[in-house]
Amino acid sequence: MKKLSKLSLIVTGVLITSLVTVSSVWAYNALRKVDATANDNIKIYYDGQLKSFTEEDGSKISPVIINGRTYLPLRAIADLVGIGIEWDGATQTINLSSNKQSNNTPVPTSAPKSTSAPVSSKSKGTLQDPVKLGEAYSWSAKEEYLDTIASADYTFVVKKVEPITVEQIAALGFKTDADDYKFDYVMVTCETSVSNAKIESGTYYLGLPFYRDVWGSKTPSGHSIIGGTDYGFEGSMNDMLDEATKDSEGYLKKINAGEVHNFKYEGKVILPITKGQENYLVIVKDESLDYSDKFIYFALK
């Protein structure tokens, strides 16, 4: 397939109608209405990696179809391919630059990207090629959950890794074992974005079909420790999932067949690791895959 240059990819992705605001007479005359359809099922790959575009609140930015052509916000595409972008509201001008220089004026096509936002990983997320610390990994999964099929697009990033002692773990209310001296422990802070989440039948609590389980830790040589504590303490990943999927009255939301939901949460995991070796956090990627393919590996340093 012929590859587009960065600039042609940018131009293809411009949604012009979302860039124009009514700030002068000539701008008003340039406005025109179009019929557009957002399509949540379209998947976007860049260099073989599935990409997910989200607003700051975790909601998915979906491709929009106008007259048979597919559009994405210019800011999302520019950030993806490394093109500098700036918006001049006075002259209604978009300036693109190959060296990614830009001023502080936002382009009103999507939420501005934070300078601390994780970059997308180009790794395969395997034991031989783990996702780097601080980099985001995106994928899609369609798997069986109880009596239904759940599907969603996911983005997961390990944001912080801190050592934690057995005494600190006990202070959180967890009983420690006599064998704890054989392991080290770390507190891992992770962020998960879930978009286009839906089920094929029934009604379930929103978070449960889409929660990514912590399998444990593994070294590059294959030494494994199964398990990790992601619940039962303040800020735990499981508890933060519950917070992210509550309604305005504080009750856990439910998802019904045919509905589409998006949510995002950040939480912590107490992870046992092998002493004196490099370790990876292991997350269940997709239960429907073969055992050798169902996990994602995230570097912890």
What descriptive keywords fit this protein?
single chain, 301 residues, 2 domains, 4-stranded antiparallel β-sheet, 5 helices, 12% helix, 35% strand, Copper amine oxidase family protein, Cu_amine_oxidase-like_N, Mao_N_sf
Description:
This protein folds into two domains: 6-97, no CATH class; 136-299, no CATH class. It is 12% helix and 35% strand. The longest helix is centred in the N-terminal third of the chain and has 8 residues, at 74-81. The radius of gyration is 22 Å and the shape is globular. A four-stranded antiparallel β-sheet has the order 8-9-10-15, with helices on one face. Helix 1 runs antiparallel to helix 3. It has helices at residues 6-12, 25-30, 74-81, 166-171, 237-244, and strands at 37-38, 44-46, 49-51, 64-66, 69-71, 84-88, 93-97, 136-145, 148-163, 183-199, 203-205, 214-218, 224-226, 254-256, 261-274, 280-284, 295-299. It has 301 residues and is mostly beta strands.
In short:
The protein is mainly β. It has helices spanning 6-12, 25-30, 74-81, 166-171, 237-244; strands at residues 37-38, 44-46, 49-51, 64-66, 69-71, 84-88, 93-97, 136-145, 148-163, 183-199, 203-205, 214-218, 224-226, 254-256, 261-274, 280-284, 295-299.
* Count of alpha/pi helices: 5
Structural class designation: mainly beta
How helix-rich are the residues, as a percent range?
Answer: 10-25%
In total, the number of domains comes to 2
Determine the N-to-C terminus distance.
Answer: 37 Å
Low-confidence stretches: 1-30, 100-105, 107-115
Main sheet attributes: strand count, strand direction, barrel closure: 4 strands, antiparallel
In terms of DSSP E residues, the strand content is 25-35%
Shape: globular
N-to-C series of helices and strands = HHEEEEEHEEEEHEEEEHEEEE
Order the strands across the largest sheet as they lie in space.
Answer: 8-9-10-15
Number of strands: 17
* Computed Rg: 22 Å
Mean pLDDT: 80
